[in-house]
UniProtKB/TrEMBL annotation:
This is RNA-directed DNA polymerase from mobile element jockey. Pfam families: Exo_endo_phos. Keywords: Nucleotidyltransferase, RNA-directed DNA polymerase, Transferase. It comes from Eumeta variegata (Bagworm moth). One of its GO terms (molecular function) is RNA-directed DNA polymerase activity. Residues 5-116 form the Endonuclease/exonuclease/phosphatase domain.
Amino acid sequence: MSENSIDIALVQETYLKPNRPKACSIAGYVQLRTDRTYSSKGGTALYYRRSLHCGPINIPPLTNMEATGCRLAMTGHSTLVIVSVYLPSPKRLLRRDLRALFALGDAVILFGDFNCKNKMGLPI
């Protein structure tokens, strides 16, 4: 990743499990991850370059989404919250999950796999 000047990478459907905490680590990067423990597949991860002023954040309980996030401090700018999200299919995208994630800060960016095929709008 460093050869391509990637500072932050967000990954969904990692399939990683807690019994292998060093799996998929990348030299020069901090790995944050949320492993799915209740069934196979799923999971999210976030990698950031060690030189960044970045740190993990606690993700609030979510109903249908899986997420991993960090807080990125930048000189001359407000702090950004960056979140890797995964919404497993066929689960619905819920407003309460989005509200919980957007409440993490003033500037929140969600990246990921939303599997959104909902044409009827968001349920409460």
